[in-house]
C-alpha cells in the first residue's frame, strides 16, 4: 500500500504558467526555466499566431 502511494505521488503533475520578461516587460528569447533540486522534467510550448 505504501509503495502504491509513493508511486502515485511521484507521477502527480502540476501546471505552472507564466511569461519570462525583463525589467521593462519585454519577453526574453531563449530563457530557461528550471525547478531547483530536479533533474527530470517535461515541458510544453504554446503560442498564439497573429491573424
UniProtKB/TrEMBL annotation:
The record, for Gene3D superfamilies, names: Carboxypeptidase-like, regulatory domain
> InterPro entries of this UniProt entry?
CarboxyPept-like_regulatory (IPR008969)
The source's superkingdom equals Bacteria
> What name appears for this protein in its UniProt entry?
TonB-dependent receptor
